[in-house]
Amino acid sequence: MSKKIIINLALCLSVSYGLILEDLIVERNFPFIFEGRRVGYFLGSFDPLHKGHEEAATKLLEYSICDYVLIYPSWGGDNSYKRRADIDIRLDMLFAVFKDHPKVVVTRFNPKQLQNLFTNAHPQKESYRKISIKGMHLIGLIGVDRAEWALNNPKEAAYYLTGYNIPPQFECHTYGSCMALPVDSLILFEREGFHVIAKDYRIGDITIEKTVSFRDYAHVSSSVVKQRIKKGHSLKNWVSDSVINIVKKHSLYGSVKV
Predict the structure, then answer these.
(1) How many separate domains does the chain show?
(2) Which of 6-15, 72-81, 114-123 has the least mean pLDDT?
(3) Partner of 164 at 20 to 30 A CA spacing, among 25, 127, 182, 227?
(4) What's the number of CA atoms in the CB half-sphere (13 Å) around residue 91?
(5) Is residue 241 part of a domain?
(6) Residue 229 lies in a domain
């Protein structure tokens, strides 16, 4: 029996086995479990992580659109543009919510470490990198607000999800997480209040292969969750209990009571 078959069998039998990238490396399961797989690269601020994010990641797996989802936060360093909770706190949210999910991958690797792990030098493009894992098809998972940003900022979007070799100043930066991995295509998440259709169904040189909408939490956004926190409203149907506990612990977002 091949090593790849043994790994997949172990994952199926271990329903409480959360996929932490660092553990996969220690256990020597990386990169084999990703070979020949469709892996979603789910970028976002996750500030805070809410049930809309959870639904987007898990439904893609339930519907077999992706085999695995690597959920990865905007790293920070761009607070003059957008103030976020500390990266370690947002990573704690991701680990707490997905720690037992067998197909959602979480990691504390910074963007440059992530790029080095999944890619190697591109043979034709000196400044870019390419996926080094055999047969892995990487898909960018983005919301329509991010698509709208990309369409309105083509100069900056030219580096988005392309595997551009991360410059030293962006190795632990949101820009680095946007550049880190080159995707083959995009899946666009619709959300209430946004009706963006990418011109020719592309962002830069990347094709949008599918637009999906999951209606259970289509109305939920991090901005609305923050507003509810400030007003002291219940978050029970908006975020998981583990995230509520983290919000309380760090008194995030001007919380009065949660």
Answers:
(1) 1
(2) 6-15
(3) 25
(4) 12
(5) no
(6) no
Q: At what angle do helices 241-250 and 87-98 cross, to 10 degrees?
A: 150
Q: Is residue 108 part of a domain?
A: yes
pTM for the predicted model, two decimal places: 0.88
Residue-wise DSSP of the chain:
--HHHHHHHHHHH-TT--EEHHHHHHTT-TTGGGTT-EEEEEEE--TT--HHHHHHHHHHHHTTS-SEEEEEE-----TTT-----HHHHHHHHHHHHTT-SSEEE----HHHHHHHHEEE-SS-TTBEEE-STT-EEEEEEEHHHHHHHHH-HHHHTTTTB-B---GGGTTSHHHHHHSSB-SEEEEE--TT-----GGGEETTEEEEEEE--GGGTT--HHHHHHHHHTT---TTTS-HHHHHHHHHHTGGG-S--
**Residues in the chain, overall count:** 258
What's 186's domain CATH number?
3.40.50
- The C-alpha atoms of residue 201 and residue 183 are separated, in whole angstroms, by 15
List, in order, residues 6 or more apart from 167 with CB less than 8 Å away.
none
**Residue 29 belongs to domain spanning:** 3-218
Report residue 81's pLDDT band, with 50, 70 and 90 as the boundaries.
low
Rounded to whole angstroms, the Cα distance separating 127 from 114 reads: 17
- At 18, list the tokens: 């959360």
Residue 177 belongs to a domain = yes
Closest CA to 234 of 211, 255, 254: 255
